[in-house]
Design brief:
With 99 residues, this protein is α+β, with helices and mostly antiparallel strands. The chain has a single domain, classed as Alpha-Beta Plaits. 41% of the residues lie in helices and 22% in strands. A hairpin with a 6-residue loop joins β2 and β3. The longest helix has 33 residues.
Length: 99
């Protein structure tokens, strides 16, 4: 692990966010509009199946700096962490009631 930190690619900062759960009917302009609240969007690319041309359900949104990506990670990671905490809390509480 320590050896990997000396490689140049280990210090690359990503300006790109991976977006999953992209529904049919969502277009790249919709992604640009939504994610512009986090920073200046350089590009939005919905990944499509090359045979059918239909969305594969995920996309990449690129920004001009890392700050926007950091804001997205903080917002959505906290949100999903709280959802998981709530889920496991209720599962544990339910298990206690079963005994």
């Amino acid at each position: 692990m320590l050896q990997d930190s000396n490689k140049p690619e280990s210090h690359i900062v990503s300006y790109k966010a991976y977006v999953t759960g992209v529904k049919d009917g969502i277009v790249e302009d919709d992604l640009r509009e939504y994610f512009s609240q986090f920073g200046a969007v350089e590009s939005a690319e919905i990944i499509v199946d090359r045979d059918t041309g239909r969305s594969r359900g995920f996309a990449f949104v690129s920004f001009n700096d890392y700050d926007a990506v950091d804001k997205i990670v903080r917002k959505f990671c906290v949100y999903y962490f709280l959802q998981l905490f709530w889920f496991f809390y209720h599962i544990s509480f339910y298990q206690v009631l079963q005994f």
